[in-house]
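Run log // design_07
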């Protein structure tokens, strides 16, 4: 049963994400441009800031604020719709969206799906869904920030993947050996681009599969919260 506190918590998180996306990052875009950063560089930094302060922060809040994954799932799909509509109507939020792709929409969808599937298929060990989302939110953000700093554009680089691994492996270790292995896999798979799958799909999907397999066939590899 959904509790009133869950609805209130979701409303507060939703409001925070809207403030971050619609106001804070827009101001940051103006500031970065005034400091001489190119349009695409400013956009890329903003996307990673949103990854961390929206995707990462909200994911960490889930086990504290919610009793089931239902409300977070609805919350994520609502944000997916709000990020997809500008692409459909041709009115992008230029300070973080680009015409070439709608990866921010797949980010929102995977955020909700992975947390929900991990939570349900592990019989309530919510970290099995949350950890892959943190790899996507925080780990991938670190990768992108390092690459943006080094190259000033969106590109793949093993230096970025190394930075991601340095963060993701100890982060994954909160779930034991399986989590650390999932962190390694997420850091590697991020380097590769697939025709129809962006890394907002591949990173959480690969790491979730590893954790679910370990949960069934090698539960000794997972620290149970």
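design_07 sequence
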């Amino acid at each position: 049963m959904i509790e009133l506190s869950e609805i209130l918590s979701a409303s507060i998180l939703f409001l925070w994400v809207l403030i971050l996306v619609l106001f804070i990052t827009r101001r940051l875009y103006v500031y970065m441009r005034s400091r001489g950063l190119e349009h695409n560089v400013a956009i890329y930094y903003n996307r990673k800031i949103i990854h961390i302060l929206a995707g990462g922060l909200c994911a960490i809040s889930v086990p504290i604020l919610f009793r089931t994954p239902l409300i977070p799932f609805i919350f994520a799909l609502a944000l997916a719709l709000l990020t997809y509509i500008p692409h459909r109507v041709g009115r992008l939020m230029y300070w973080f969206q680009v015409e070439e792709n709608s990866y921010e929409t797949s980010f929102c969808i995977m955020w909700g799906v992975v947390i929900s599937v991990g939570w349900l298929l592990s019989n309530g060990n919510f970290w099995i869904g949350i950890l892959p989302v943190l790899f996507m939110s925080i780990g991938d953000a670190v990768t992108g920030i390092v690459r943006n700093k080094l190259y000033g554009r969106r590109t793949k680089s093993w230096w970025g993947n190394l930075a991601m691994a340095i963060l993701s492996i100890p982060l994954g270790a909160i779930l034991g050996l399986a989590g650390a292995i999932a962190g390694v896999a997420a850091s590697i798979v991020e380097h590769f681009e697939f025709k129809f799958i962006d890394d907002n799909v591949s990173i959480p999907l690969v790491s979730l599969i590893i954790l679910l397999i370990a949960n069934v066939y090698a539960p000794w590899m997972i620290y149970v919260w």
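The radius of gyration is 17 Å.
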